[in-house]
Amino acid sequence: MTARVLVVDDVAANVKLLEARLTAEYFEVVTATSGAEALDICSRGLCDIVLLDVMMPGMDGLEVCRRIKADPRTAHIPVVMVTALDQPADRVSGLEAGADDFIAKPVDDMALATRVKSLARLKTLTDELMMRAATSTEIGFDEAMDPRTISGEGGRILLVEDMEASVDRIVRTLSPLHTVDVNADPQEALFAAAENDYDLVVVSLSLSGIDGLRLCSQLRSLDRTRQIPILVIVDPDDRQRLLRGLDIGVNDYLLRPIDRNELLARVRTQIKRKRFSDRLRDNVQMTLEMAVTDGLTGLHNRRYLERHLTSLVRQAQDRGKPLSLLVLDIDHFKMVNDVHGHLVGDDVLREFSRRVRKAVRGIDLVCRLGGEEFIVAMPDTTSALAVLVGERIRQKIAGEPFQVTNGSSLEITVSIGVSSLESASDTPEALMKRADEALYGAKRGGRNRVSAAA
Fold it and tell me: Residue 107 carries which DSSP code?
């Protein structure tokens, strides 16, 4: 994971040291020696993460952080405050200023790499979400982001710890902002994580007689828990196990004794990252559904039909099973639009789609080709049975007037053409052509009827 990191410090030696360490981890580094210079770099979009020293002359790091977070153009950029170990007040002030994380001086190489990588992933997700949101707005589909997602608050956390003092401290710190479930048994915790929708799992590596890393490995191996972030709590002298944990997929860590402000910051970052990832997956799924769904009726569209009809024909031929097709065309639909307007026409199309869906089976594929023309593909259905289904649809459409928004009651009818697979060499195109010809026969015969291909 690479990113462009802005290092802000007025001491040249500190800048050079951080630059060398980050470059060794293959990050691109930009430097600034003052708050004003850092704000200019951020406003021009030249960095992905800001590594910000608290103590600087003129504009200190806390003020720089406040200004970054107050500007809509830069508020999404993660900010890491570099603080001294004996300055807990700086961490409180940093949280209040909007800092995303902290690194203590002297800077540890592993802590630096872990924090920056974690926030780089969060920044990537944020950028992707912002781009999708902008695109959605441009095409007229705007969906507001839940404020809890942006803040990283209101999370559901599973804590796996058996030290009562540690449990009490962590729960007291997190419970004002999050819901915390505690489980001291790793096996029970694994079942709980798989059954519940957790935003974060916090695992102690000091569990009595039990290897906490095994739980982390199991969480990463199960499909139900693979996406849940893992935060481990380790003793300062347990570096080797921490390295193994990071190798198997642990997202972040806290050293004992736990600093409450670091705990709040780490938890917030991981919960935001989980929610942003979930949101992106949901957006991808929604985009795929929109690409193959007719927005007016909710039915599948022509693109979906073209892709799936070929598969249905092949499966029917391979299994030696029948397959039938209905082509439906609403009679005199242009007159509905011309006389009553397109809004009424849309009402008719929606109600027509609802009645057709109720008249067929769940395995039948119902699509809107466009305009007033629809297709129903019916696996395991002979021509004779398809004609009966077509007649049932015709009766449902003609049997009850359509009530529309302007208060009118419209008599609607439909003409239906039927075709079926005829041989092992038949094609989707031939099937569609025969159904179309049958539909034209129904239209010529007076409409409001079902006609089967000869």
Answer: P
Six-digit token string for 151: 């803040």
Residue whose structure tokens are 């600087």: 56
Same fold, 1-143 and 145-285: yes
Task: For the full predicted model, state whether its pTM sits above 0.90.
Answer: no
Picking from 260, 268, 270, 262, the residue whose alpha carbon sits closest to that of residue 230 is: 270
Contact 271, 200 (CB under 8 A): yes
DSSP readout, 127-165?
Answer: HHHHHHHHHHHHTT---PPPHHHHHT-S-EEEEE---HH
Instruction: Tell the burial category of 8 from Cβ atoms under 10 Å away from its Cβ (0-12, 13-18, 19+).
Output: buried
Q: Which residues contact 37 (CB under 8 A, 6 or more apart)?
A: 8
Q: Across the chain, what does the average pLDDT equal?
A: 88
Kindly report the CATH number that applies to the domain delimited by 1-143. 3.40.50.2300
Give the burial class of 244: count Cβ atoms within 10 A of its Cβ; 0-12 exposed, 13-18 middle, 19 or more buried: middle
Per-domain boundaries in the chain: 1-143, 145-285, 302-452
Task: Give the whole-angstrom CA distance, residue 205 versus residue 211.
Answer: 7
Among 355, 114, 386, smallest CA distance to 250 is for 114
User: Using alpha carbons only, what angle is made at residue 135 by residues 137 and 67, rounded to the nearest 5 degrees?
Assistant: 80
Element (H, E) at 31: strand 28-32
Catalytic pick among 164, 195, 372, 411:
372
The CATH fold of domain 302-452: Alpha-Beta Plaits (3.30.70)
262 tagged catalytic: no
Any idea which of 95-104, 196-205, 238-247, 440-449 has the lowest mean pLDDT? 95-104
Torsions phi, psi for 11 (to 5 deg) = -100, 115
pLDDT in tens, 365-381: 999 998 999 999 999 99
Fold of 145-285: Rossmann fold (3.40.50)
